[in-house]
Amino acid sequence: MTRRKEGEREKKKGGAPPCAQRMYPDKVRPSQWGGVSVRGGRREAPRGAVVVWCRVGSKGPSAAAAPLDPRSTFPLERSDRRVVAVATLLSFLFSFFLLEVAKFCCSMSATRMQLLSPRNVRLLSRGRTELFAGGGGGGGPGVRSLTCPPLSSSSSSSSPGRALSSLSATRRGLPQGKMSENGVVSRAKVLTIDTMNPTVKKVEYAVRGPIVQRALELERELSEGMKKPFVEVIKANIGDAHAMGQQPITFFRQVLALCSYPELLNDKTFPEDAKSRARRILQSCGGNSMGSYSASQGIDSVRQDVALYIERRDGGVPCDPDNIYLTTGASDGIVTMLKLLMCGEGAARTGVMISIPQYPLYSAALAELGAVQINYYLNEENCWSMDISELQRALDEARQYCNPRALCIINPGNPTGQVQSRQCIEDVIRFAAQERLFLMADEVYQDNVYADGCQFHSFKKVLFEMGPEYSDTVELVSFHSTSKCYMGECGFRGGYMEIINMDDEVKAQLTKLVSVRLCPPVPGQALMDLVVNPPQPGEPSYESFIKERTATLSALAEKAKLTEQVLNTVQGLSCNPVQGAMYSFPRITIPEKAIKEAMDLGQQPDMFYCMKMLEETGICLVPGSGFGQKDGTYHFRYRTLDFFATADLCIYQLNFQLSSLLKDLIVVYVQKW
């Protein structure tokens, strides 16, 4: 039987050519050739294999896509020698192809392209190479087709080689992955501590720093039954009034409940004034629902109520609702204004003056925005008052390396608890006008004033009472919040800011900036409306509201006075009068031995002190180094609490001093012995 007839017979059987059976008797099975099984007219490849389908002389894409019998690739009528030569050549080219494919796969980003599967690679006719990257072969949805330029129409024997060599040219257009030394795509993270935003790494927020994290761990350990020298963790680190047991104002919660679930408007247990407030708020919301977006600047009716509140507070000084921006707490407004002030590079970079001690929001925001922090120190010996000569010193020094543009004031003070006098505020306004500084007045504790002879004066009121020379020129923004004062509603994130004398074009940019975040939380806006427009005399809820408000402020005043008196009775502690806000910032004397021990541990001495206090008493404080302090002095911020917590703190201070003294005595005794 001739080889041609033998081949035709095997072809009818569906088997491999006889030459292939003689060359690979142990590898070739019926209906299988070149790793491709033919079953019912379908081509199937072993799982994970890379298969090349070749058809020389096909005409166009339709021919390339037609069903392909792998055995028809070879001219079966030729001699075995010719077939062996062709097979050897193809084996070499196929090995070279696999090498190129491996390199190609390694060069592709693992997140953007899958490794090539049997259906992803095709060498088409006339030297045209087409690669399919994605979830499957062909040009379906989600599949990326990468096609090399057509090769020259040379002999068919050279086309496969050129097509294979062109793969390296194709992959140059692909996203490059990071290559390791062994040529494998690196699995290193795209976002690492070395490749992240460097300004974020500079951000620090001591109020929720390492001590607070340890406090959370201690709470978990206590809940698991572990024995500690205390039975609970007292969080004196943060001004979260409700978390510390302060009760919410009933009227506020009634209106918020009605707004959240309008079906309750038919419930007779709610007073009529609460229902009327809820209806007014809901009518101002899209679809009569607090779940809808509001205007980016805030609900119009709420901004109108805020403007009326400011006019009443400031004795009739006019307030335009269009200058009111409702915010996500005061913090959101502060950061937004700082963003507007950022400008310049190098020595022209924006500098912002902040008080030391300061609330860490300011230093954190300036670090994130890449601004220059300019420190001016409050006068601790004069109850943390502001000193114009200190402001001038800080400003003159800063102008050597930045462009000071803003001055921030917190009144009443956080963490220092002072209330600035009217004379001090006037001096600050004159200083800002003379030095062309933008004033930022943080007045979120304006209702928390306790000390005799102290009174809150808003910067806006003082500014307008100083006359047109200042009221028409000095740029000012003031902030208020629902989180502090007698409300203590920190979680609702309600607040506002009022802008004075802002350039109209800048104001348009401010509106655009707040629009990016759509709107502040609508429940927070509703709560802000209740704060600035509480029950009025003659309304059903007025008496209960006044009773609750007075009781809350009286309790805060008693705790502030108690804190000052008790702390000043302990050696090693000294505390200025707590005139307002919710905190004291006592100065502590730390023995030299403890300072050295802290330094050996790589900690600030006041951090060391506060951490040991947490471990021994369960009282969580914030070290003064987190707020800033003069070199060589040590403090901590203490949220004014009840007598027992303050007594525990004092006992710890006595034990701390005593233990240090005992250590010194033991050392002296051992040395003498």
Automatic annotation (TrEMBL):
Residues 133-142 have a biased composition (Gly residues). Pathway: Amino-acid degradation; L-alanine degradation via transaminase pathway; pyruvate from L-alanine: step 1/1. InterPro entries: ALAT1/2-like, Aminotransferase_I/II_large, PyrdxlP-dep_Trfase, PyrdxlP-dep_Trfase_major, PyrdxlP-dep_Trfase_small. Residues 270-629 form the Aminotransferase class I/classII large domain. Residues 1-13 have a biased composition (Basic and acidic residues). Residues 145-168 have a biased composition (Low complexity). This is alanine transaminase. It comes from Scophthalmus maximus (Turbot). The gene is gpt.
